[in-house]
Amino acid sequence: MITCDICKARPAQFLQHHAKRRVCKTCFENDILSRVKDTIKRFNMISEGDKVLVAVSGGKDSLTLLDILANLMDNNKIVALSIVEGISGYNREEDVALVRHITRMHGIDHLVVTLKDIIGYGVDDFMHAQQKLKVRSPLSACTFCGIARRRVMNSIAREIGATKIATGHNLDDEVQTYIINILRGDIVRLIQSHPLSAPHAPSLIKRIKPLRYVYEYETTIYAYIKGFHFQDTECPYINQRPTLRAKIRSMLIEIESKAPGTLLNLITYLDTVIEPLVLKYQKESITLPQCTKCGEPTSPKRTVCKFCTLVDLILQASRVGKDG
Question: Which of 106, 29, 28 is nearest to 70 (CA)?
Fold first, then answer.
């Protein structure tokens, strides 16, 4: 019998590639919980008086996050939010039902909303609008989905009095974000992606990512251990127009497979190097302009926010064939 490299007693069941060690179920769970707890403490992600809105899609990452937070903090200060994006063949009732089962098990309030109900349009509506207008360089479904989801999360967080929004982005996701911003030369977004960055408008609720130092393969193992029958259906739009993120993801997977631990080393290094820039940036007084259409904060030098710009495209498509 091969024993666990940590406790030296129980049989090893899983291999943590980045650490080059075999671990048992108990030691694996304890390691993940400890790492997330340390991440929350290091970056002061959650304070005693915080109320946390947890975005839960039904996938392995968000279910893992919800379960871990339920074990680390007062469940009365957690509210789970499931957003149905409006993607045919992807959003399924059983995925929401699974989240509801887990929230009930922990005694956590669970809100379920749809993009269509909140903002009037789903992801399919946006993609169909671009087809109808024959947009030459169409935006990806991910662009609209991400912007719309963030708008809804922020709106609901304010409505229920949440002080933090927690998402299930894992280590792989966060390294991808860093690389994308570096390749684009986007210093502002590079700083904003650091866990110590602060919102530049009172109406923007701070987003936190406690799984920042947990690999994607580890969230899969954690969900398996817990018996979560998580959503494994891939979004149908993911392969229609591969994004820069998808290409970087493939590259990083190959690098990590050849040199396990590279992603963890990289994000640890970048977090350390970027931290002084974050602290310097926060001392500068930055006031974001308000969108002239919706009144929400928008990027500097913009009068209309990206969200309203995308909605205008849908409205424009709805008028095609009606005018005149």
Answer: 106
**Closest alpha carbon to 63 in 239, 204, 214:** 214
pLDDT reading at 258 higher than 60: yes
**293, part of any domain:** no
- Is 138 a domain residue? yes
Contacts of 156 (CB under 8 A, 6+ apart): 53, 81, 111, 113, 162
pLDDT tens-place string over residues 26-70:
999 999 999 999 999 999 999 999 999 999 988 899 999 999 999
Is 208 part of any domain?
A: yes
Stated pTM of the model: 0.93
- 52 backbone dihedrals φ, ψ, rounded to 5°: -110, 125
Separation of alpha carbons 121 and 86, rounded Å = 8
Instruction: Select from 6, 4, 20 the least CA-distant residue to 260.
Output: 20
CATH of residue 162: 3.40.50.620
| pLDDT tens-digit series, residues 172-194 | 999 999 999 999 999 988 999 99
- pLDDT in the model for residue 323: 53
3, 12 in Cβ contact below 8 A? yes
Q: What integer pLDDT is reported at residue 324 of this predicted model?
A: 45
